[in-house]
Design goal:
Strand content: 15-25%
Strand order of the largest sheet: 1-2
Shape: globular
Order of helices and strands: HEHEEEHEHEH
Helix content: 25-40%
Length: 144
């Protein structure tokens, strides 16, 4: 990353305040925001109480019983609700689903194609197994 100076960095006391600050930078009250459901209960309060409309894209079980993002549903809901901001949890909270690299890449393709800003909540990302090969959003996209 280039051009980042200390004036661009702020302090937030916790993920919920940070999410609200980021939302207010990229959206206005009344705007729709995409989240995966089930959704962390803290997000329900802080996003809804600040006037944003939450649109949920439910996780769905695949044939192996693994909870996955529904990329078609995400794309359809983004388009139908004119969404330009997404809150993405990695690993997912509350179900704890650790996304595989291809899943993060596919989700970001959907978001990029729809001109969405991604607010990535990775507060639990340090819980990945050291040799699992699972990485977070920043690692997948080589953001340093």
């Amino acid at each position: 990353m280039t051009g980042l100076t200390k004036e661009h960095i702020g302090y937030e006391n916790g993920v919920l305040g940070c999410v609200v600050s980021a939302l207010t930078a990229f959206a206005a009250p009344g705007d729709a925001v995409l989240l995966h459901s089930p959704t962390y209960i803290g997000f329900k309060g802080c996003i809804g109480n600040n006037g944003f409309k939450m649109v949920h894209s439910p996780l769905k079980k695949d044939e192996a019983g693994i909870w996955r993002m529904d990329f078609e549903d995400m794309d359809a809901k983004i388009k139908a609700n004119n969404i330009h901001v997404v809150v993405f949890c990695s690993p997912h909270n509350p179900c704890g689903r650790v996304w595989e690299k291809w899943e993060i890449e596919k989700a970001m393709e959907v978001y990029r194609a729809n001109d969405c800003v991604v607010i990535s909540d990775e507060i639990w990302s340090d819980l990945f197994w050291k040799n699992s090969g699972i990485k977070n959003y920043l690692y997948v996209f080589h953001i340093q």
